[in-house]
Amino acid sequence: MTVDPRIDLPVPQPNKQHEALVSFWWTSAMLKNVSRRFFRENYSSEAHFNLLATLMKSEGPMTQNELSQKLLVDKSNITGLLDKLESLGQIKRNKVPEDRRSYHITLTDAGRELLAGLDVLYSEMVHKVMDCFTEEQCDQLVSLTRKLRISLIEHAS
Amino acid sequence: MTVDPRIDLPVPQPNKQHEALVSFWWTSAMLKNVSRRFFRENYSSEAHFNLLATLMKSEGPMTQNELSQKLLVDKSNITGLLDKLESLGQIKRNKVPEDRRSYHITLTDAGRELLAGLDVLYSEMVHKVMDCFTEEQCDQLVSLTRKLRISLIEHAS
DNA sequence: AAAAGATAGTTGACAACTAAACTGTTTTAG
DNA sequence: CTAAAACAGTTTAGTTGTCAACTATCTTTT
User: What is the CATH number of domain A40-152?
Assistant: First the structure.
């Protein structure tokens, strides 16, 4: 029984700041891989789930541009994603009378049902993964990552 | 002067565990975007830099398989990446006498020079982004992300 | 020593994403 | 009021990555 080599960083870092950022990056690569496999097993994808969930939880309809900003992806990506989901009958593009350039995107019943199913599995997964974190640790993680977001926006946007 | 909408999470989360994981995910998406732009401005990419840096810091030569595991990407991805870097004269594939299936990958002088240049800019960037974190906060981030890696390996691999 | 299985790397098909150029529509400024 | 600028969404081309099937080599089992 050996220790998984992915637990510790691939190379030593020159100082604590580097170490913290690389540790974060490294973990996010792992989360990405886990997440890809999880959604793949459930015949979906991270982008798909996030899109449906964002639509579900938004108050009022969203435009593609708003979705693009919320989801931190390029708007051209949203176009393609919505094309697919529309053809699967999970969302609808509704013309906006006040602005003929835009669409209001809404979930169909099929979209809502699919999301409901995925949400159960997703919540189970989150619970399993995060169960070893105390409330205080969760709070710390939220606050540290929020700090990092602010810094990223400030120094690199 | 309004607050950047990317600071706070796109949708409210049902509990602290969800919030922590989503906050982490969200931040990692931002870091990814920042990182892509940073390396693109410097005529490189995250994958490119990570590969060179990993080779540089390894003791002894590495095989493609080892690189693939260190970098958490598929081995076929390493093949393509190395093809490009080899054609740019930044790395060399050296036949391994003891195992004729493998190559030992080494940096060329050109590769080392490029990396040295990138490393300066990268370190500046890390310093700028992480300067608002105290040592203690860096430690916390390292320890929380390490914990998350362990949990991800345990519950989802 | 031979057959079966594992491993290193490559290939090809594909998925997810970006960026830049484009179309059509709306807003703003002279 | 009209020209210029900004904006929403699409298209196209290119990048980065996966996965599965494949070749060649090495290891294990018997």
Answer: 1.10.10.10
